[in-house]
Amino acid sequence: MSGTELFFKNTLISTINPKLSTNFYPATPICDTCNTDKRIFEKNQNSFYICLDFNFTDMTRLSVNINKIATLRNARGGNLPDVEKAAADCERFGAEGITVHPRPDERHIRYSDVRLIKPLLKTEFNIEGNPIPSFVKLVEEVKPAQVTLVPDAEDAITSNAGWDTLKNRGFLTEMCAEFRKYGIRTSIFIDPKPEMAEGAAACGCDRVELYTEAYARGYAACPEKAVGPYLETARTARSCGLGLNAGHDLNLQNLEYFIRTIPWTDEVSIGHSIICDALYMGLEQTIKAYLSKVRIF
């Protein structure tokens, strides 16, 4: 195709063709970064709208959730695999953050693990979980870069829903204010519904994390349909001034499409899929593979 070539760090990343019509994906003449422009970047034959002012140095960060490593350790007893070493190695292999989700029964990450991991990290530490009193106390003691509030029940196998930020506005507002006193960035885990993003903003959080299970489940059948509610909610979150995270069942098959569609995603948190792939690829090569899916611009 003809058009203006765009280079970033001496590498051709896009060709801008102002003659392309809105028949290209996604079918909207609105910039997906600032909602005001119509300029098109094209890369690998996938077209999408993005502002020419997009900051290519501020790309999506990969935070590795190491809960499954702790699950394996706990299944046998002892300290193999070593969770602290795994956290440090994930960073060494390129991860830009470490996520843990301590639960009251400590069936995977333990509260003691959280305390030991924090001093080892050079990147961001994200602690997610239901803000029960013991969790709040732990977070305020450790002071991670970010706390992600998740409404999971104590017996939940994994997170299975986002907050209703309208019904729980009072409680979430209190929690956000509490963690802000300690200089901790707050993110609220939500379903892909624009009204939940608006409700989260009213609670005073800094970011929302989109619960991506439904996207992952629907991706194989129709990626565009699966991502639709997420794009709408992400735009709402951005219009409310919120940062954007995403996580749950993201993997090597569906991750790149999500980032291409919502390129202003600040962070993805991935654990289960990374550990599954690492069984075959090794942890270092797996992390590099996931990084290649988020560093696409």
Descriptive report:
By secondary structure, this protein is α/β, with parallel strands linked by helices. It folds into two domains: 4-49, no CATH class; 61-294, TIM Barrel (Alpha-Beta Barrel), CATH 3.20.20.70. 37% of the residues lie in helices and 20% in strands. The strands form three sheets. It has an eight-stranded parallel beta barrel, surrounded by six helices.
Query: How much helicity do the residues have?
Result: 25-40%
Give the oligomer, counting copies of the same chain as homo and different chains as hetero: single chain
Rg, alpha carbons: 19 Å
Shape: globular
The main sheet orders its strands as 5-6-7-8-9-10-11-12
Structural class: alpha/beta
CATH class of the largest domain: Alpha Beta
Arithmetic mean pLDDT: 85
CATH 4th-level superfamily of the largest domain? Aldolase class I
CATH topology of the largest domain: TIM Barrel
Major sheet attributes: 8 strands, parallel, barrel
Task: Please give the number of β-strands.
Answer: 12
Q: Stretches where pLDDT falls below 50 for ≥5 residues? A: 1-30, 35-49
Task: Count up the domains.
Answer: 2
Strand content: 15-25%
Number of helices: 11
Please give the alpha-carbon distance between the first and last residues.
19 Å
Order of helices and strands: EEEEEHHEHEHEHEHEHHEHEHH
CATH architecture field of the largest domain: Alpha-Beta Barrel
